[in-house]
Specification:
By secondary structure, the chain is an alpha/beta fold. Helices cover about 35% and strands about 20% of the residues. It is globular and about 30 Å long.
């Protein structure tokens, strides 16, 4: 089944982590899943957050406090985790 989870932002927080944990479980069960969000801050999120596929708007919307190198490394992890 194809599933889209829409979460305004992914960062360390309870509702965001519910979405990440649900998404990771659904992927493990064999579903094709994307997480649509306007902002992504990987700092403090569980490891399964880096294993999901995200749909982000154009531009640098990944944690503005991160260095360009950290943003690049995060995007590389996202690109390599896509099937």
């Amino acid at each position: 089944m194809k599933i889209l989870i829409i979460q305004p932002r992914i960062r360390l927080g309870s509702s965001e982590m519910v979405s990440v944990n649900l998404a990771a479980k659904l992927v493990r069960q064999g579903h094709e899943l994307d997480v649509a969000c306007a902002f992504m801050d990987p700092e403090g999120t569980p490891c399964q957050a880096s294993q999901l596929r995200y749909l982000l708007p154009p531009g640098n919307r990944v944690a503005p406090g991160l260095s360009p190198l950290e943003v690049s490394a995060f995007r590389s992890r996202m690109a390599t985790s896509m099937p």
